[in-house]
Design a protein that fits this description.
Elements lengths: L26 H9 L1 H25 L4 H27 L11 H7 L6 H29 L3 H28 L5 H18 L8
Helix pairs in contact: 2-3, 3-6, 5-6, 5-7
Bound molecules: fe (ii) ion (2 copies).
């Protein structure tokens, strides 16, 4: 059995009571994923690579915010490790990695980020939190339903990791944007995300 090195570099325990819960993914999503698991894993690899790139883009955008830089550098490394692990599994199964494709879910959520400098950081952090939270929910569903025991362990570890990540993003938003109504904005975005997930077609992909 392969060891998965997905240990967190950042631990954040946060109070989530005031935050709008996530709706369950549509019932057909997990069946669609299980019906074409190779495609799901190809998409998953891309999603991890993009998550690492997103964390690095935060570093580039806010070099003057040391707490953010440190957290995002750690996150970029952790996401890249996830990518490495998914790629290792793909290669072991002799699945050819696929080219990155546009993710309609992430594209739509990014459109909700207000460009005004007063809100840009807050919205980016909270969209990050919401994407990670949905990832945690879906990876947990995969872990619960996939038959292969190595994949069960892998996706259980990935789900725990993404759970920590959404907490990290909320914590950063509260620490760095505490002058703004952070929880309130989270709830607005969560409502919009819940509606988006119900509307988007299901695919053998993370989103
Ligand atoms: Fe990840
Ligand atoms: Fe993540």
């Amino acid at each position: 059995m392969a060891e998965h090195h997905l240990q967190p570099v950042t631990q954040a325990k946060i109070d989530t009571v005031a935050l709008t819960p996530l709706s369950a993914s549509p019932r057909g999503w997990i069946s669609c994923v299980l019906a074409d698991f190779d495609a799901f894993m190809q998409d998953h690899a891309s999603a991890e690579k993009k998550a690492s790139g997103m964390a690095l883009s935060m570093v580039s955008h806010y070099p003057d915010q040391p707490a953010l830089v440190q957290a995002m550098v750690d996150l970029a490394v952790e996401e890249l490790n996830h990518y490495k692990e998914v790629m290792r599994l793909l290669m072991a199964k002799q699945i050819t990695p696929a080219a990155d494709r546009k993710d309609p879910y992430v594209t739509r959520l990014n459109k909700l980020v207000r460009k005004d400098a007063a809100f840009f950081l807050l919205d980016r952090l909270l969209v990050g939190a919401i994407v990670e939270r949905r990832g945690a929910e879906r990876f947990a569903l995969v872990a619960e339903h996939v038959a292969d025991s190595e994949l069960q362990k892998f996706y259980t570890a990935i789900a725990k990791s993404e759970e920590r990540h959404w907490h990290l993003f909320v914590q950063l938003a509260r620490d760095l944007c505490g002058h703004l109504p952070v929880d309130c904005r989270f709830c607005e975005l969560a409502d919009l995300e819940n509606a988006l997930v119900a509307e988007l077609p299901v695919r053998p992909a993370l989103h």
